[in-house]
Amino acid sequence: MKLQIERQEDLVIVQPAGPRLDAGTTPQFKSDALAAIEDSTRGLVVDLAQVQFVDSTGLGAMVSLLKKLAPKGKLALANVTSPRIKQLLKLTRMDKILKSYDSLEEALSALQDNG
User: Fold this and answer.
1) Most buried pick, 21, 30, 33, 39, via CB within 10 A?
2) Adjacent-strand bridge partners of 6
3) Angle between helix 56-69 and helix 26-36 axes, rounded to 10 deg
4) How do beta strands 74-78 and 53-54 pair?
5) What residues contact residue 37 under an 8 Å CB cut-off, 6+ apart?
6) 101: pLDDT confidence band, cut at 50, 70 and 90?
7) Taking the mean position of all CA atoms in its chain, how far away is CA 72?
8) 22: DSSP letter
9) From the CB of residue 73, how many other CB atoms can be counted at a distance below 10 Å?
10) pLDDT tens digits, 35-70
């Protein structure tokens, strides 16, 4: 899976460039995202604009990223527009842990305000 990585000061934005974040694509996503937040990152935004499906391995990878950022960093999900992803987050109660926003701008603003 290709992953676009962008830095804005001490925030990192990662955007999976594919429709699925599942057992087949998650290992590469997780590896690349962990490498991107290796050095003094205050926050990470996972931009799901192109993602239409996330399974438990995808959720697990996001929790791993959140743990890697702790205690100083925060994680936000952006462009969570897929009803399937919204439902998965709600059913697993991950919506309480992984904050999601309708746009990249909202996610970035939330992380900057918490800094």
Assistant:
1) 21
2) 13
3) 10
4) unpaired
5) 12, 44, 65, 68, 69, 73
6) very high
7) 16
8) S
9) 21
10) 999 876 789 999 999 999 999 999 999 999 999 998
